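#struct-pred

JT: dropping the chains for the assembly here, can someone run the whole complex?
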Amino acid sequence: MKKYLKNTWDALWTIFIGMKVTWKHLFIPSVTIQYPDEHRPIPDRARNRLYVNIDDCIGCMQCQRACPVDCIDIKTVKALPTDELGLTSKGTKKALWVTQFNIDFAKCMYCQLCVFPCPTECITMTKVFEFSEYEREKLLYNFSNLTLSEVKEKEENYAKFMEKKAAEKAAAAAAKAKAAAEAKAKQEAEKKDNDNKPSSEEKDS
Amino acid sequence: MYDLLTNLLGNQIVAYVIAASLPLIFVLTFVLFAVLAERKVSAHMQDRLGPMRVGWHGIIQTLADMLKLLQKEDIVPEGADRPLFNLAPLLTFLGTYAAFAAIPFAGIYVGSSTAIGIYYITAVSGLVVAGLLLAGWASDNKYSLYGAMRTAAQIVSYEIPTAIAILTMVMVSGTLSLMKISDMQTAHFWNWWILGGPETGIVKFLLIPFMIITFLIYYISSLAEVNRTPFDLPEAESELVSGYHTEYSGMKFAFFFLAEYANMFAVSAIAVTLFLGGFHSPIGYLGHSLGIDWLIPVEQFFWFAFKGTALVFVQMWLRWTLPRVRVDQLMVICWKYLIPYAVVNLIIVGIITLL
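RK: done, full complex below.
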């Protein structure tokens, strides 16, 4: 009987204690962070989406070579001597048009290995991690700031320049060959002359 | 209220229809906010925020949910017993709503001013069990059937302590009419039955502890009757998916939901009427002191809704405090604790009232 009454009392009393606890929690500020509106601070060394400051890129392709999953795809075209490319923020002279700088974030594994070799520090990690897409193609980011027509123009310019150079070279070579031929002919003629009238020197020797 | 409406509209039938649908409006608005309150209370008790997106702090979340449920496909399982499957949610809600007919919301409004109000409510609540059993049986699903069987066992068992607690109150007050019981507790809160009612002298003070015990017994067993945690075995998610309404979707599911929350208010309303002064104000009426007659029913309705909602809040509070009991513990609580206490309490209260 005593146990029975104690059970009853314990049941009611423990329920009361439990209710006290939940009542307190009712007024404790919640721990929820309303995610899309609020963000937790991202750690300083967090590795997220890459960003390329294309103005600083010299097209050295070191990042492409460093990438373990080959997600960086760079194409460059040599600049003409007359082109004005400007300097990087570190003062390095740029010699290449970066016609394509693609990073496929579907492949990227955020290892940060591409960041360290960059000589101009133009490829960096940002704090952006919300960039999901419905189509995989949209994850292919092109950082090059040249338009397609510009790329074509640069390529044509370079091709023309090379043609011109080749032509010049060919002309130079032809001129050289001609000069050489002339010289040879002259030499030969001289030789012939010499043959015709053997020199005293030859005899002497 | 009927007379007023009949005079106003000149047609008795229209007046009846309007008077009968007034609780429905109240129930719908109540459920709309109770569902949100449940989610908010549960969230804040667990240090979360709950719904925050729809409207200011998620205030119209329930409306959005309702819209979603309306658009959902109405699926009837292939093996289901179609007519019974469709009848079950209606019957469940009917049983709940029928109870509202005898609950006095204010001095001028009670659906049916029958002399046997509380008896009628106890009887008509049994219809809910039939509805739930039908739902479980017609779904052709083992979880639904288990849930329904548990519901039936639980509600039928807990009807006994509920009935004994109500009997105690009927014995003390000497009437079955809820309107008369309410009117006994008028004026101030020390006239509430939980504080000894309108009795005077030593009897009042002797009654108080036993009235509190009666209230606790009624409250605990009413929790079990509306299938709330810690007695939510019929819809124990971890064991039975969601019990008798596993197979229901769309509006039929919404009906079960509606019935559950309406039932919560119904049992709280009975507790308020029997123990906490019904619709009467605990501190006197502003309408009396200002001399504005029409203000009194409004105040009465406010107090009734306020007390009922407060008890519903305690139900939610208990739900998010206590874990679910086991089936055998459920039966132990009912048969070995609540019923003996209720019977002993009944006898003692009987002796006290003889004094």
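JT: nice. The mean pLDDT of chain B is 84. Chain B has two domains: 1-58, 72-354.
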